[in-house]
Every structure is written in structure tokens, then in C-alpha cells.
Amino acid sequence: MKVLVSGMIAGMNDRAFIQKVVKLAKLNGKEIQVYNAIHEFTKGGKKPLERLLGTTDYVFELTREREYEKIGFDIQKNNYKDVIIRLPATIEWNRINRKFKDQRILRDFIAPDVIVTLIEAEWVIKKELESIDSPDPFLKALKARQHTIYEILSWMNEEVSLSEDWARYMNIPHYVISVNESPDSLYKLVVYPKPWVVYASYSMTHATEEMRKIVNEIIRKLRSYAVVIDPQTVEISQEFDSPLDREVIYAYTVHRDLHWYVGKVDAVIAIHPYPERPPLSAGMMDELGHARDYMKTRYMIFPKGFSPFTTDSYIEKGHLFETPEEFFDYLENVEKRQKYTDILEL
């Protein structure tokens, strides 16, 4: 599979994440070829990125077109099967978000099968940008800009939004994945056509350490059947520099979970394994409501959870389970979902 991997080009540990994906592939006897579009645009740094951004849009578009054509030709010449092309959909420069409307070029020269946008917690990105220690003029300029939380979240949102537009133009799937996800998530999207992609929904407010272990174990088992999007891989900041930062972070957190995650997956798995249960998480119920509106398949693990609202409204009939064992038995023996035989952990 040919996978375009977009996302902010600074402030995230995306390179390490992709390296883990490549390493996981090697453990399974597979090779993933990785292209770095920024490296190609700049000829390995010989053409400074800030100079390319300082040219006219037309000149930079021709540069991108030429390099994407070269990447596509190289993939075809070498008959590479599994490929990651790391590229930007946008770049924030001089307080302007430069959008790259490259969908036609990418479709004609590379013909990707999937687009994945990588994300990270905004406070982590801010910390990384503020601690840049590099002679690279572009990175030094980014540090000097002192991007606010709102500007970072806006840049991230533009990456997701434009990548989504690319995917719609090419009629291919688009997913959003944190760089802190287990590498098997991206690995499956690269080496398997049309894998089952699910979102794990659960209470992050009421969870005790004991219950979090149960939830994590369910998610770990679920990875044997699907690409799992786990919301806890983007850690929400507990400290805010201003009321505005808190407002913006909360707004983007809700938008991310409901639209970037729930809106793009095949199914939502609600996990609420409390025998003496606390109230159902407001976030989880909101996610299930949006999953219903998006016409996504919904499942729920909920001891003693049968009620008209769970079985007739939020959850489809036959998809409410008292125990994790019942749920996984249903996946395997009723839906006949195949388990991955690959090594899924480094």
C-alpha cells in the first residue's frame, strides 16, 4: 500500500514513530520504503526551506510537482509494494498557513491508497518548538515566532482538514493517528488493504488505576483484530497559561474525538467494565451519539448495562456485551473476524 503521511513538520516526534513502524515491518519479514518529501524539496538541505517558502506559490508548486513525480517514478521503477511518503499538507510561515493544494499531482504521480495525518498534544508541540536547538534557519525562525496554543492547534487543524480534502478528491480513506499510538496502527494501514479501523471509547475521568488496566488490556486484545485509535495517546494538558488556552484546548479535544476520530473509523467500541458502575462518561455517550449519526457500527462492553437507551438507541441490537470475553467471542465466532498473525509489539 502507498500511504501519504501528513502532519506538522516540526514539534512532533514523527520520525521516531515512522522508524518504529519500519522496524515492526522488518520483524514480520516486510520492507517499508520511506520517502521524506521535505528532504526531497530541499535536496537534503541544499535548498533552504525558508527560501522555497519565500518564493512565489507558483515556483514552489513546480518544485513539489517535480519531486512528487520523481518519487512516483522511483516507486514504480523499483516495484515497491509498501510505501510511506511523509509530506506536509500545510506549513505555517510568517504567521500565514501556506496550503499545498497538491491533490491532483499526488493522485497522478503517486496514486496513494490511504492518507494518514499524524498529530500530537498541543502542549508537547509548544514545548518542542520552544526548545529547538538547531542551526537550521527554518527551525530557528519557528522558535522565534513563539507560537501560541491556538496557533499550534490551528496549524494541526489545517493539516487534518486539507489532508481530508485530498482524500475526498482521490476517493480514498483518511485517518488521524497520534505519534504516540502503538506502531501497529500505521503498520497495518501500510501493509494490509482496507483493515478494520475502530475507535476505543471509555471514561478517562472516573477510571481508577485498576480499571484503566482492564481497559488497556481490552484495547491490547482488540489490536489483534483491528487498527485501534486510542484517545489516551494524546495527553490533555492539566495546566493552562490562560483561560483562553483552556477554552481552545477543550474545544479542539472535543472536535478531535468526535470528528477526526469517530467520524473516520469503521466502528466505535465503548468500554465501561465497571460492575458497580459510576455514571456513564458524558464524552463516551457523546461519541456514541455521533457514531450513530455517522452511521458507524457501535459495540459496548457494559456489565448489567441493558436498557432501552443502550440497546435501542446508542448501541445496535446484539452489540451490547456483559464481559470482554463475550465481546471477543462475538467478533471471532459470529462476525468471523480474522486475527492478525503478525508480531504487533516491538
TrEMBL record:
It comes from the Bacteria. Gene3D superfamilies: P-loop containing nucleotide triphosphate hydrolases. InterPro entries: P-loop_NTPase. This is Uncharacterized protein. It comes from Methylacidiphilum kamchatkense Kam1. The lineage of its organism: Bacteria, Pseudomonadati, Verrucomicrobiota, Methylacidiphilae, Methylacidiphilales.
